[in-house]
């Protein structure tokens, strides 16, 4: 069970958004499981604001389309309350067989983290390394704004899943007068940032409106960056 990989894409009127980037990551994830690259048929698929999922196992390749769940749309609109939690691993140090850089179907631990947050009256979790560095969320990359720096965590250095939405946003940063940066960041540094977002394909950007119980002022950059991404 869980011996497979998947991708979730934002489905737009023009078709699957950032399709090639997602297919490339799907192939990289499959390679980490010693599986050949898949060739899913997504031709002709579109929606005004939908979700496209590609699921690939050793004996199945499935493509499905659905509506975006209302809680996801609400988080995009209203933001999220986030708690920090130690993941129990050192930054960039995983066992040789680790699938931390793969989008694998083994998401039980990820969902358990979000259920733990819900029991604490929060929406999501930012995972930390043993050294106190910010890593990622259970289903999202971390993006922050500090002055003119629009940053995210370098996936190879941190040994985390490469975030497609975050990488695309940083590629657009100069057009908004912002400076794209990939660097390791500690929790106190993140808390001091002007704005924090969780980025993923369906949410786009969900602004962190409280971190470890401390309310945060909403940023005027949230609608600007969502518009830049086409949400």
Automatic annotation (TrEMBL):
<dbReference type="InterPro" id="IPR036038">
    <property type="entry name" value="Aminotransferase-like"/>
</dbReference>
<dbReference type="GO" id="GO:0005829">
    <property type="term" value="C:cytosol"/>
</dbReference>
<dbReference type="InterPro" id="IPR043131">
    <property type="entry name" value="BCAT-like_N"/>
</dbReference>
<keyword id="KW-0032">Aminotransferase</keyword>
<dbReference type="InterPro" id="IPR050571">
    <property type="entry name" value="Class-IV_PLP-Dep_Aminotrnsfr"/>
</dbReference>
<keyword id="KW-0808">Transferase</keyword>
<dbReference type="Pfam" id="PF01063">
    <property type="entry name" value="Aminotran_4"/>
</dbReference>
<dbReference type="InterPro" id="IPR001544">
    <property type="entry name" value="Aminotrans_IV"/>
</dbReference>
<dbReference type="InterPro" id="IPR043132">
    <property type="entry name" value="BCAT-like_C"/>
</dbReference>
<protein>
    <submittedName>
        <fullName>Aminotransferase, class IV</fullName>
    </submittedName>
</protein>
<dbReference type="GO" id="GO:0046394">
    <property type="term" value="P:carboxylic acid biosynthetic process"/>
</dbReference>
<dbReference type="GO" id="GO:0008483">
    <property type="term" value="F:transaminase activity"/>
</dbReference>
<comment type="similarity">
    <text>Belongs to the class-IV pyridoxal-phosphate-dependent aminotransferase family.</text>
</comment>
């Amino acid at each position: 069970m869980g011996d497979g990989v998947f991708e979730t894409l934002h489905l737009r009127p023009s078709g699957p958004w950032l399709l090639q980037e997602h297919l490339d990551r799907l192939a990289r994830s499959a390679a980490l499981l010693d599986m050949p690259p898949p060739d899913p048929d997504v031709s002709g698929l579109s929606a005004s604001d939908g979700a496209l999922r590609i699921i690939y196992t050793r004996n199945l390749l499935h493509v499905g389309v659905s509506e975006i769940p209302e809680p996801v749309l609400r988080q995009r609109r209203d933001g999220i309350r986030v708690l920090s939690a130690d993941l129990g691993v050192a930054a960039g140090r995983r066992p040789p067989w680790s699938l931390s850089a793969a989008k694998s179907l083994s998401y039980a631990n990820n969902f358990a983290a979000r259920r733990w947050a819900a029991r604490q009256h929060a929406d999501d979790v930012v995972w930390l390394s043993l050294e106190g560095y910010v890593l990622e969320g259970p289903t999202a990359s971390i993006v922050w704004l500090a002055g003119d720096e629009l940053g995210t965590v370098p996936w190879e250095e941190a040994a985390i899943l490469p975030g497609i939405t975050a990488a695309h946003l940083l590629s657009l940063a100069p057009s908004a007068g912002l400076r794209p940066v990939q660097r390791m960041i500690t929790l106190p540094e993140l808390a001091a940032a002007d704005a924090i977002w969780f980025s993923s394909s369906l949410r786009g950007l969900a602004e962190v409106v409280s971190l470890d119980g401390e309310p945060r002022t909403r940023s005027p950059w949230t609608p600007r960056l969502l518009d830049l991404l086409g949400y």
